[in-house]
Amino acid sequence: MERPHRVSVVGRRDVLAGGGAGLLMLALGPGAFAQDAKGPPANPNLYEQALDKILGDTKPLPGKITFEVPEIAENGNTVPYAITVDSPMTPSDNVKAIHVLSMQNPLPHVASFALTPLSGRAYVSSRMRLARTQDVVVLAELSSGKFIIGQRTVKVTIGGCGG
Amino acid sequence: MSLRPRIKLPESVKPGEIIEIKTLISHIMETGQRRDKDGQPIPRKIINAFRATFDGQEVFSATLYPGTSANPYLVFNMKVPGPGELELTWVEDGGAVTTERVKLNVAV
């Protein structure tokens, strides 16, 4: 499958090197490592675009997200996942939304979920496509306006996205 | 749209209880990234939105992208406010809507 737009500021190998590098990248925020690049990227990175669209100027913090996903997915077409965010889910203190982004899919956005106090628990489970081994990022948007972030690496044996 | 969604709810619930709602709808979730035999792009056709309301009140909603697998499966929770009707809606690219309504069997 052609992926003409998959151009990353950070080398792909750096991302694949481990969650540590990826996590650091996210902790610094998208702006921080854009400056490290040798000149501007030839193509805007779709993952960062998706991230920016969700976060705006907010910096996500690590927080109480339980992100259950297999370490090794044999079939990238259907990778189950479950996300739980620690929250009382009251009208004054709740999780407004949960976003799921893949770092290396041709289209990074997997899904966004909107929750309400009627949800009772900040939980969602679904299935995603993963084109290859990569990190998957979860962002939880709190009623306070803050974002918390979680991340997991998933090894994919057979890539999804129906290529 | 003749898609037959499947919905799984607990058989009986109590007010105030947090229940799990499981839904699945049959759909290819065509990503728009694939090409046919002649090299022509196959247009995107996915379920792009899902919404759950209880007696008109928003419970949970989802915006889905091509990164979500075929036959989208969604599990979420609801804190049962009391007896009422759950309405689940799926929206496909192009605007076709599938709606299911389920009365919740609340033991008071």
- Residue share in helix of chain A: 10-25%
Main sheet makeup of chain B: 4 strands, antiparallel
Low-pLDDT stretches of chain B are none
Rg of chain B, please? 16 Å
**Biggest sheet overview of chain A:** 6 strands, mixed
Regarding quaternary structure, what we see is heterodimer
The interface involving the most residues is between:
A-B, 36 and 30 residues
Structural class of chain B: mainly beta
CA distance, first residue to last residue of chain B: 37 Å
Radius of gyration of CA atoms of chain A, rounded to a whole number: 16 Å
Instruction: Quickly give the structural class of chain A.
Output: alpha+beta
Average pLDDT over all residues of chain B: 94
Helix content of chain B: under 10%
Written overview of the protein:
- The complex is a heterodimer of chains A (163) and B (108).
- In chain A, the strands form 2 sheets. In chain A, strands 1, 3, 5, 6, 8 and 9 form a 6-stranded mixed β-sheet that branches. Chain A has a 3-stranded antiparallel β-sheet with strand order 2-4-7, with no helix packed on it.
- Mean pLDDT of chain A is 79; it is low at 1-43.
- Chain A has 4 helices and 9 strands, in the order H-H-H-H-E-E-E-E-E-E-E-E-E.
- By secondary structure, chain A is α+β, with helices and mostly antiparallel strands.
- Chain B contains no helices and 7 strands.
- In chain B, the strands form 2 sheets. Chain B has a 4-stranded antiparallel β-sheet with strand order 4-3-6-7, with no helix packed on it. In chain B, strands 1-2-5 form a 3-stranded antiparallel β-sheet, with no helix packed on it.
- In chain B, strand 3 and strand 4 form a beta hairpin.
- The radius of gyration of chain B is 16 Å and the shape is elongated.
- The A-B interface holds A 1, 77-79, 82, 89, 100, 102, 105-121, 123-129, 160-163 and B 18-19, 30-31, 33-34, 54, 57-70, 72-79, 81.
- Strand 7 (122-128) of chain A pairs antiparallel with strand 5 of chain B, so a sheet runs across the interface.
